[in-house]
Design brief:
The protein is α/β, with parallel strands linked by helices and about 525 residues long. The chain is built from 21 helices and 17 strands. The chain has a seven-stranded parallel β-sheet. A six-stranded parallel β-sheet has the order 12-17-16-13-15-14, sandwiched between helices.
Length: about 525
């Protein structure tokens, strides 16, 4: 029973034979020698970098491409989960270039067709038909990378009001770039096309199995599937199930089974046996390399925490708010609570720890953190250093931008209100104009898709619940192309919820690392309310 229990959970019986999904082949490795397990009927083609790829792959990148190609040949999905800044986009483009060459017939075997007696013969072309689904902020980046590294591939942007004109011709492109929002709107049309590839970038966008986008993306017809994500686990193991269900449907069973068999035993009881079983199932399908492992030539990144103290009026307002929050959220007050209300209340405390003006725009009360941060920024500007300044609150960034204007300090900024069409110019200005010292970026708008290697300082004005988001922000500067050591500075207000968030991050990080060595946390804010409000 012990030996065959795992197999029984993931197999079915037909005509007295046990059938195992190809994506669950690792279960057989505990029963028979691995060399006896054959999952690919077709002869494998050895990967060699194509001369048409206008890039020299680093050794780990070539390994990544070989890994993607192997999964394609085995007709299995793959999740490339490398650290931010290691070139997931380039590795994916290289795999697509290789696949294109496999699809393209030799010149002597190219067929021609004649539409009528009087027209010239036409070559029958083979198109890659790879649908790449992205956050809207990354469409430009991907288009530029493909033009740079694989200019022979035909690409189109299936976005905006002009996309309807492209729809009838989707099958005549190698790469179709679209957004999650567009795919959701046009799912009834897009599901009629048979794509060779569907690739999801920043694939945590489909982590919610109940979301419309998760359901829509699984309705797309595609032979091969790749997800690209810095972490398949962002908040809980439910995220992992969604990622695996996309690339290899049915691989982890139904969600109710997954919840009972893995999620609850692992998250609530840290069941080591179930952790090992889950690792056995997912290991072949997630490739995760960190900068420390593979990009040893990258400059060092150093991190420091600067603890700031609230000023008198700020501290009084904070303690008053915290007391009200305790009464409301810990049951002294009879008002019913829900998750949204909890988050709103905790957000108020986070804002007060930053600056009283974030809660009350008319107040004249100063902020201890603001005083310390502006002093730090002055030092950087005087030393002609370039810095990225991140906050989860756009209003917080506005306070510092106003300060810069009053001090005649040149800066640029990027938030959710920034038009996609303006992002390229803003990034180019910062990278090329030495007079621009500071770049203010909201965490959500600028955490991905930006290459800002001219900055050697990263400042995190306030901690986020999930440290993975902070790591994404740091990776805007600490990535391939960076020539200087990077200094990351976190500003934390003492004796506030910010200190508690740091402690939560440390405690909760271990679980996901045990499963797939990912720097993210399963985050249950409501379970830690008492700790947060001490």
């Amino acid at each position: 029973m012990t030996r065959y229990k795992k197999l029984a959970n993931f197999s079915s019986v037909k005509d007295d034979k046990i059938l195992v999904n190809k994506s669950n082949y690792t279960l057989l490795t505990e029963l028979v020698p691995p060399e006896e397990i054959e999952i690919n009927k077709n002869p494998e083609t050895t990967y060699e970098p194509s001369p048409k790829l206008k890039a020299t792959l680093r050794p780990y990148q070539e390994e990544g491409v070989k890994w993607l190609v192997k999964h394609q040949q085995n007709e299995l999905g793959a999740c490339l989960a490398d650290d931010m800044g290691l070139g997931k986009t380039l590795q994916t483009i290289a795999a697509l270039v290789f696949t294109k060459e496999l699809l393209t017939p030799a010149p002597e075997s190219v067929q021609t067709i004649r539409l009528d007696l009087f027209s010239d013969p036409l070559e029958v072309k083979t198109y890659l038909k790879a649908l790449i689904v992205l956050p809207s902020s990354l469409v430009f980046n991907w288009a530029q990378e493909i033009l740079k590294f694989a200019p022979h591939l035909t690409i189109t942007k299936y976005t905006g009001s002009e996309r309807k004109k492209i729809l009838p011709y989707l099958e005549t492109y190698d790469v179709i770039l679209t957004t999650y929002t567009t795919l959701l709107k046009d799912i009834s049309q897009l599901q009629k096309t048979n794509f060779n590839y569907i690739i999801t970038d920043e694939s945590q966008q489909i982590k919610n199995k109940e979301s419309k986008i998760f359901k829509a993306i699984n309705e797309i017809q595609a032979t091969h599937k790749i997800s690209l994500s810095g972490t398949p686990i962002e908040n809980s193991l439910s995220d992992l199930w969604s990622q695996m269900e996309f690339i290899n449907p049915g691989m982890l069973g139904s969600f109710p089974f997954f919840k009972d068999h893995f999620k609850i035993p692992i998250e609530k009881h840290q069941n080591k046996e179930r952790i090992e079983e889950l690792k056995l199932l997912i290991d072949p399908f997630i490739l995760r390399r960190t900068k420390e492992q593979v990009a040893k030539d990258l400059p060092d990144v150093s991190e420091q925490i600067i603890y700031t103290e609230m000023l008198s009026a700020q501290e009084k307002a904070y303690e008053s708010q915290k007391s009200a929050a305790r009464n409301l959220l810990l049951g002294i007050d009879t008002t019913a609570t829900n998750k949204i209300h909890i988050l709103n209340t905790l957000t108020n405390l986070r804002q007060l720890a930053n600056h009283p003006k974030l809660v009350n725009v008319t107040t004249e009360d100063p902020s201890g953190k603001f005083k310390d941060v502006t002093s730090y920024l002055e030092t950087l500007v005087r030393s002609n250093k370039k810095a990225l300044i991140f906050s989860s609150f756009v209003g917080h960034l506005e306070l510092y931008k106003e300060w810069c204007q009053s001090q005649n300090i040149s800066f640029t900024s990027l938030t959710g209100q920034t038009k996609s069409s303006d992002r390229e110019k803003i990034v180019r200005d910062f990278q090329e104009n030495d007079s621009i010292s500071l770049f203010f970026i909201s965490l959500k708008a600028g955490g991905v898709g930006l290459n800002l290697t001219k900055a050697s300082y990263v400042i995190l004005l306030d901690p986020w619940w999930n440290p993975f988001i902070e790591k994404q922000a740091i990776a805007r500067a600490h990535r391939i192309g960076q020539k200087n050591n990077v200094m990351v500075t976190r500003f934390i207000t003492k004796n506030t919820i910010e200190e508690k968030i740091l402690q939560l991050q440390e405690r909760k990080q271990n679980l996901s690392e045990e499963i797939i060595d990912i720097n993210a946390i399963p985050d249950y804010i409501e379970n830690d309310l008492e700790e947060l409000l001490k």
